[in-house]
């Protein structure tokens, strides 16, 4: 309960001003395509040089929480996921915006983000010592099985058929092998200097999601100007709150999965949203509605990606190991003030530690209030005529891809992937499984090779990968996931053939 | 019309003439860091360049641009082939990383592609084991490695980085072979593997290991440098423990420009930049972050690069 004692510090005038500024600025940065939470926080570090340690961290913490939530804005309105965390939000969120329900989607996403985020920070406050052990429990073999678990959901994620889903997953896995391999030192498929560092995930996200959409808009031409103006429906905040709490299943699955996955160093943030989306779909009674603008999809994805923020800091604050790229940047922000995360932080600088954590808690609330305020206005983006919209999205895409590492190479990668995806979509493939393959490929591969190297030096690969409680548990979950998918597919086929026969 | 062109040409020549060494720099300077934002190199680069806007330094701010990927190869490839050699594009170097990479091939740079300006930091590699490990000195480690060839698992940040070089040197000095496990995700992932007990030991940066030891998570058994570190006065060097390991694996960080940069610009930078690093505000921030400083002038760096090139050529020849 020590944290309550330090709540006062958050509300001192300068601190609160920074918190407010960090939150609003973070939302704007997060909504800008190409600026991931990691980059937004890194951009703010130099500003903290002049501030006290506590104040600097308040700014960074507020920016971190709100950039993650801000990513939902471009995901919903423009179908450009700001970061891997927001991929799942595009699936239903953007469809809702196209139906004129952008305000509702945004309100739900901010509310779900706040609920998930607050739960995540509370976990950080109360369970940090327990959670630290859990974060360490995942070695290479466990991360490998976890990535395989992710691969098993590829087929069922947002695709018309399992086979097409798996095929696009395979394309993603292949794309992931491009570049220098850090562990074996091999060069793979580098036929252009732009590919030396592999495919940048942010550039790929922008290309795969936004570009096909832009091309479709251009392809329609001027023919139906005016015919397609979307009527943006107003949506009251109260109704959104009510809807959120009637979707408790999506909310709680999203929050729990986000918190658990957020803890695992190196994996967390990228796949939390997608896994939560998939699990919510499996447990939902309205499975068929997912992907057609169903609010459960938005709630689960956004609750998960904000719930992951708190737990993802556990390894950093307790063991001084940054578990995610953003945590690594925050580590820099701490070190510059001479504060070492770990026991030193909580023993000798409790004011810094707890004020920082409290500011993340208050930041979630501020983020939610501000987000709800602008949701109605932002949703009007859908009224912009398609020809104008296509130009805006295209320029934002180029800007976003370039800004990741100030490199034209990333813009070429984005354009090529985008054009390729435009044609793939014509054949019923979709971008989400492809991206999941791209994210999971390196995790599965690096951990398998690392695990094999350790296993070869110690007790053999079989024993290393196939024994031990956590390994067996994860293998069981992998098998269950496969069996479930196969069963659903077979059942689905039987139904459709019956229906077709009747018709 | 011809007159107009001639006039414009004259005006242009006048402009370029004016932008000689006296005026340099007349606009903000960019410095490329070939690792991601928030990493140790990026973090230190931001600190050591924060006073460059002062009158007594360059008088113009330095902006950091990150071009991460493939262990630094992406950024250095870009710097060697595409960066403008006009003095407005600097880069941070990491030795032995870029030299080892150029020896192993597959990149478009070598020490001849760059001109060093000054060195700001030196982060030695150290040997760490978990806090509850039975090993208490390098002697214990070597004894175990001798009894169980190839079974001692040791983590490090990647291939052909300082950590890997240190592991190869320990192997060579002790006549053993450890199982070196490179991690994806840099020194932090390698440290996590040690703390979680996934590997029996690890080679890591002194600054990160110092923090982890303070937190009670690891023991530091040896420093791969010529002298003990001021941060760790109680930890002996490898040499003191009978292992012939020099400072080849020490991670030197500094500033360089592309080959072809005008000599007067290099001169000006070489004179000003070490002074800028010596600023007390810089050293205070660096010390607070646990980052050891080691300022070297351009001539000292040229000599250091040449030495590294030679040692690494020999060390990596057998691989």
Give me a quick take on this structure:
The complex is a heterodimer of chains A (503) and B (319). Chain A is mostly helical and 503 residues long.
What does this entry look like structurally?
- In chain A, strands 1-2 form a two-stranded antiparallel ribbon.
- The mean pLDDT of chain A is about 85.
- Chain A has 24 helices and two strands.
- In chain A, a hairpin with a 6-residue loop joins strand 1 (about 180) and strand 2 (about 185-190).
- Chain A has one domain.
- The longest helix of chain A has about 35 residues, at about 100-135.
- In chain A, about 75% of the residues lie in helices and about 0% in strands.
- Chain A has helices at about 1-5, 5-10, 15-30, 35-50, 55-80, 85-100, 100-135, 140-155, 160-175, 200-220, 235-245, 250-265, 270-285, 295-305, 310, 315-320, 325-335, 345-350, 350-380, 385-405, 410-425, 430-455, 460-465, 470-500; strands spanning about 180, 185-190.
- Chain A is mostly helical and about 500 residues long.
- Chain B has about 325 residues and is α/β, with parallel strands linked by helices.
- Chain B folds into two domains: about 30-120 and about 250-315, D-Maltodextrin-Binding Protein, domain 2 (3-Layer(aba) Sandwich), CATH 3.40.190.150; about 125-240, D-Maltodextrin-Binding Protein, domain 2, CATH 3.40.190.
- Chain B contains eleven helices and eleven strands.
- In chain B, the strands form two sheets. In chain B, strands 2-1-3-10-4-11 form a six-stranded mixed sheet, with helices on both faces. In chain B, strands 7-6-8-5-9 form a five-stranded mixed sheet.
- Classes of the chains: A mainly alpha (about 500), B alpha/beta (about 325).
- At the A-B interface, helix 4, strand 1, helix 17 and helix 22 of A face helix 2, helix 3, strand 7, helix 7 and helix 8 of B.
């Amino acid at each position: 309960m020590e944290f309550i004692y330090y709540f006062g510090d958050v509300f001192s005038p300068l601190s609160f001003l920074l918190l407010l500024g960090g939150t609003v600025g973070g939302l704007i940065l997060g909504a800008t395509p190409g600026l991931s939470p990691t980059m937004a926080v890194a951009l703010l570090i130099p500003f903290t040089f002049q501030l006290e340690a506590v104040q600097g961290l308040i700014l960074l913490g507020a920016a971190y929480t709100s950039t993650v939530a801000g990513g939902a804005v471009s995901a919903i309105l423009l179908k450009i996921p700001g970061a891997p965390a927001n991929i799942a939000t595009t699936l239903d969120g953007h469809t809702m915006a196209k139906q004129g329900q952008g305000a509702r989607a945004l309100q739900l996403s901010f509310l779900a983000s706040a609920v998930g985020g607050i739960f995540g920070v509370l976990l950080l406050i109360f369970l940090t010592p327990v959670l630290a052990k859990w974060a360490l429990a995942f070695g290479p073999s466990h991360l490998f099985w976890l990535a395989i678990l992710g691969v098993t959901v590829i087929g069922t994620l947002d695709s018309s058929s399992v086979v097409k889903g798996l095929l696009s997953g395979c394309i993603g896995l292949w794309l992931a092998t491009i570049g220098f391999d850090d562990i074996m030192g091999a060069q793979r498929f580098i036929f252009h200097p732009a590919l030396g560092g592999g495919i940048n995930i942010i550039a790929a996200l922008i290309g795969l999601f936004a570009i096909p959409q832009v091309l479709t808009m251009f392809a329609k031409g001027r023919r139906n100007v005016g015919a397609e103006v979307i009527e943006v429906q107003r949506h009251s905040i109260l109704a959104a709150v009510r809807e959120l709490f009637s979707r408790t299943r999506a909310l709680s699955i999203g929050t729990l999965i986000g918190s658990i996955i957020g803890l695992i160093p190196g994996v967390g943030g990228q796949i939390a949203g997608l896994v939560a989306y998939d699990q919510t779909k499996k447990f939902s009674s309205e499975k068929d509605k997912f992907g057609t603008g169903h609010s459960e999809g938005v709630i689960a994805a956004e609750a998960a990606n904000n719930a992951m923020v708190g737990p993802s800091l556990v390894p950093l604050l307790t063991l001084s190991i940054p578990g995610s790229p953003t945590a690594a940047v925050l580590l820099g922000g701490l070190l510059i003030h001479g504060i070492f995360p770990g026991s030193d932080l909580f023993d000798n600088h409790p004011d810094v530690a707890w004020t920082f954590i409290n500011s993340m808690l208050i930041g979630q609330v501020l983020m939610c209030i501000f987000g709800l305020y602008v949701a109605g206005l932002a949703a009007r983006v859908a009224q912009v005529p398609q020809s104008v919209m296509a130009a805006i999205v295209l320029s934002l895409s180029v800007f976003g891809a370039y800004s990741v590492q100030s490199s034209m190479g990333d813009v070429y990668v984005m354009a090529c992937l985008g054009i390729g995806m435009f044609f793939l979509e014509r054949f019923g493939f979709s971008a989400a499984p492809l991206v999941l393959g791209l994210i999971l490929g390196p995790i599965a591969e690096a951990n398998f090779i690392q695990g094999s190297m350790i296993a070869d030096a110690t007790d053999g690969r079989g024993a290393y990968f196939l024994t031990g409680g956590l390994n067996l548990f994860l293998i069981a979950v992998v098998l269950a996931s496969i069996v479930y998918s196969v069963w659903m597919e077979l059942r689905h086929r039987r139904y459709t053939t019956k229906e077709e026969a009747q018709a | 019309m011809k007159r107009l062109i001639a006039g414009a040409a004259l005006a242009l020549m006048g402009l370029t003439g004016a932008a000689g060494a006296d005026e340099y720099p007349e606009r903000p300077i960019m410095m490329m860091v070939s690792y991601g934002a928030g990493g140790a190199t990026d973090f230190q680069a931001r600190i050591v360049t924060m006073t460059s806007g002062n009158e007594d330094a360059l008088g113009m701010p330095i902006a950091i641009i990150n071009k991460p990927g493939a262990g630094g190869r992406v950024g250095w490839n870009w710097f060697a082939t595409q960066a403008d050699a006009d003095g407005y594009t600097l880069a941070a170097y990491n030795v032995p990383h870029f030299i080892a990479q150029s020896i192993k091939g597959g990149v478009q740079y070598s020490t001849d592609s760059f001109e060093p300006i000054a060195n700001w930091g030196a982060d030695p590699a150290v040997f760490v084991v978990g806090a509850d490990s039975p090993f208490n000195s390098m002697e214990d480690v070597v004894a175990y490695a001798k009894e169980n060839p190839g079974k001692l698992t040791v983590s490090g940040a990647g291939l052909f980085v300082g950590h890997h070089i240190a592991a190869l040197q320990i192997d060579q000095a002790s006549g053993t072979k450890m199982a070196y496990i490179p991690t994806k995700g840099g020194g932090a992932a390698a440290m996590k593997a040690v703390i979680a007990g996934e590997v029996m030991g690890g080679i890591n940066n002194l600054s990160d290991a110092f923090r982890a030891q303070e937190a009670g998570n690891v023991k530091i058994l040896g420093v791969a440098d010529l002298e003990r570190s001021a941060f760790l006065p109680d930890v002996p060097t490898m040499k003191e423990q009978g292992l012939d390991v020099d400072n080849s694996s020490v991670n030197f960080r500094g500033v360089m420009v592309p080959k072809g940069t005008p000599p007067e610009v290099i001169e000006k930078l070489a004179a000003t930049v070490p002074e800028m690093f010596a600023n007390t505000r810089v050293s205070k921030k660096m010390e607070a972050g646990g980052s050891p400083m080691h300022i070297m002038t351009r001539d000292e760096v040229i000599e250091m690069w040449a030495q590294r090139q030679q040692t690494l050529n020999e060390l990596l020849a057998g691989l």
